[in-house]
Amino acid sequence: MVSRHPASVLAIVRRYEAAGFRAWPAAAVHYDGTWVVRLTAGHPAKRLNSVNPLDPGDIQHIADRIGRASRRFDAYGRPLTFRISPLSGPDLSRHLDSEGWSSFDESLVMRLPLADAQLAPAMDQIPLKDISRFIGASLKVSGSDVSLRPGLSEIIGAIQPEAGLFALEEGNEPLATLICVHDGDLAGLFEVATDKAARNKGHGRNLILSALKWARLRGAREAWLQVEAGNAPALALYRSLGFEEVYRYHYRRPAGA
């Protein structure tokens, strides 16, 4: 058995996976067959530092290829991490199971046809042009360490599709931030965050709707995002906006890593 998913489902997954790679680019990308090895020295995010298998049938010499990937991760000082989507296939998962690899951090990929979104009341908002200002706001509302500033700046600067940097502010205080990447008929939402002291007041919802309105005016027909399965408040928000699950992925690391 190569895959438990029909070809039509895998084609949809491939579309979102490719959009995700374009929208959130790693600093270094290597290919081993159809495994995409993504590494980023300046940012520790798992999606920027992971092996991403893209074909359920590409299962030759798994142990040797894991060894090659491990050496690349060691060179970057990153823990060897596989990102397992429906494109990885059951054979690879069985191999990792047999080697005692752990599974963690399941996430959902969700979509929303923009024709179904209630965007008319959304505030018209122009994205920030000042990347430095946006990054400062993003780090503050997400509670992230300021040491991530150079890495985040590098990632945003490398995004090839049009990226809208959105921040909702009250005076000089940022309340919520997000990045909306307009890529053809897709609008991807990334780094969605609301300041801890300003949550449950609708700021995140309002900013998302403004960003999607911006993207739809530029020709986007569908919004999509990735959210951790354990983030109940975010899932509730996205579902209330009409987002529906497309597929899930999770991460795996060797035993003891």
Describe the structure.
The protein has helices at residues 7-23, 62-76, 89-98, 131-142, 149-158, 203-217, 232-241, and strands at 28-32, 35-39, 50-53, 82-84, 102-113, 162-170, 173-183, 186-194, 222-228, 244-253. By secondary structure, the chain is of the alpha+beta class. It has two domains: 7-108 and 249-253, no CATH class; 112-247, 3-Layer(aba) Sandwich (Aminopeptidase). Strands 4-10-5-9-8-7-6 form a seven-stranded mixed sheet, sandwiched between helices. It has a three-stranded antiparallel sheet with strand order 1-2-3, with helices on one face. The longest helix is centred in the N-terminal third of the chain and has 17 residues, at 7-23. The protein starts with 6 loop residues before the first helix and ends with a strand. The model has no long low-confidence stretch (mean pLDDT 95). Residues 121-257 form the N-acetyltransferase domain. GO terms for molecular function: acyltransferase activity, transferring groups other than amino-acyl groups. This is N-acetyltransferase domain-containing protein.
